[in-house]
Amino acid sequence: MQDFRKLQVWDRAMEITTRIYETTKAFPRCKQFGLTAQLRGASSSIGANIAEGCGRGSNKDFLRFLHMAIGSAFEVENHILLAESLKYLEKGQASSMVEDVIELKKMLSSLMRKVKRASNGNKKEGCQPS
């Protein structure tokens, strides 16, 4: 078991989630329980899955949670694009947010490859700083 707070990818996920919470404050009130809640929930689950995976005892479990985290990142990207289509986000703002999410997905993919390599080498710890 390792400290998830030492992972750059977790840090980045937290930054994105914070930005999404701040940004969605300006969404129409009628979307509070729709798109706003979906965007916030999906973004917060990225960091939560990274953290939970670090608390597991094996690379296999950690990898499973990283897969869930990257799935949530794809969901966030979709919701940002939808918010742009609905004119809740300006094009430039949405593009910047999507770029951040794509960067996060790349970081998650890289970490997943490292964990897979560690699994093949039979290292026991499920969470390594990146």
Biggest sheet record: none
- Topology, number of strands: 0
Uncertain segments are none
Number of helices: 4
User: Can you give the helix content as a percent range?
Assistant: over 70%
Q: Which series of helices and strands comes N to C?
A: HHHH
Query: How much beta, percentage-wise?
Result: under 5%
What structural keywords apply?
130 residues; mainly alpha; 4 helices; 0% strand
Task: Write up what this structure looks like.
By secondary structure, the protein is mainly α. Helices cover 72% and strands 0% of the residues.
Brief sketch in words of this structure:
This protein has about 130 residues and is an all-alpha fold. It is built from four helices and no strands.
Helix-strand layout with pairing:
Layout: H1 8-24, H2 35-54, H3 59-85, H4 91-120
Helix pairs in contact: 1-2, 1-4, 2-3, 3-4
